[in-house]
Amino acid sequence: MRQQKIKIPKSLSRIRNGGGLRIGYPSMRNDPVLVANAMHWHGHPLEEARCWVHQACMSPCPTTKHGSQSMRMAHATANTAKMVEYALSNGYDNVINMQMGPKSGDPRKFTDFEQFFEAWVKQMEWIMNILTRTVNMGRVLDPKNNGRPFLSGIYERAVESGLDAVSPEGERGNAWVTFFTWVENIDSLAAVKKFVFDDKKYTMDQLMDAIEANWEGCEDMRLDFVRNAPKWGNDDDYVDDIMLRCLREVARHSKVIKCPSNNNWPALPENVSGNIHYANMVGALPNGRRLGDALYDGGISPGPGLDKKGPTAVLKSCGKIDHVGDGRAFLLNQRLSPTQLSGEKGYQLWKAYMKTWAELGLDHVQFNMVDDATLLAAQKDPEKYQEVIVRVAGYSAHFVDISRKTQDNIIQRTVQGI
Length: 418
Prior knowledge:
This protein is α/β, with parallel strands linked by helices. It contains 16 helices and 14 strands. The protein has one domain: Anaerobic Ribonucleotide-triphosphate Reductase Large Chain (Alpha-Beta Barrel), CATH 3.20.70.20.
């Protein structure tokens, strides 16, 4: 649902009366922010940016002949937890046993955080480069190899220009790089900065030994990194500043790489269950995660159970991001208590929460409001719970139809009390 600040009370009333929150709908979008975002990243005129609709799960795209893409095209999709993983392995992928990224330095020889961060930047740029080059090549070759004559006959820009609808010529571009598993980078960088370089609680050799062993034999140390290292989503400037620094390095590089329309490739952190699909592809990380553990549930959502200071602290962390200039859009999952939000008092609490969300300038939030008892019962007896719907990432789904790992991950999300 597109939210204008002056219309928020009326919109929220419609959602409540329609029962939308309890079935994973709707996705809440901050209209003024996304209009400005479309103008900033792809140069859409104001009158066109105002008519944006979702392209795929999260990307706002004008419906106009020069502002839209005439078909669903592949976008560069990055398993971004690999950025910090490769920064800790000199670009070598220990999961598939081959050199993947550039050689960015032996982490055991890093003497300060800046050297580690510089290695991370090199891996980030390489991942964005290789993915966008692949998609760019496909788009350039599409008119020759994958033309769409029927679509071209009904698409205004194609009819006027005589070019196939899949041609990027005449299109301003609406490209983005989907960033799966993004917050793992932030929590991992913060953990290394705090425990290794600032507090000197552990040496880099100790950390690398633990990571290379997938934390086996180092459980006390692993739990220290999980429980006591700074975590995103708690209104803690120590880790939040690292988020901003990373996003601004990405935004800088997004303007260096170009799509075939000569426009930018901004990042769009979301998920689409990628945290489950990539679980066996990402090695151990400094946030305490082991190979095979589910990754965080995506976008700028805090790790499950790691947002300890309540929903307002989550909003305040996310509100430090520039939702116009730092990226294309930012998915935020929140799980709220259905008991607390029942009745008129609960509705007023939620309305105040949404007012804060809008005033902090966030571009997106979506909710699950199904209690643990219902979800656990649905796992045991799915036939009786066919109609339970949850919000997964940029989409909603019947709970019993998604994988067990995804179900467990949703149950693990922090139930916030407002």
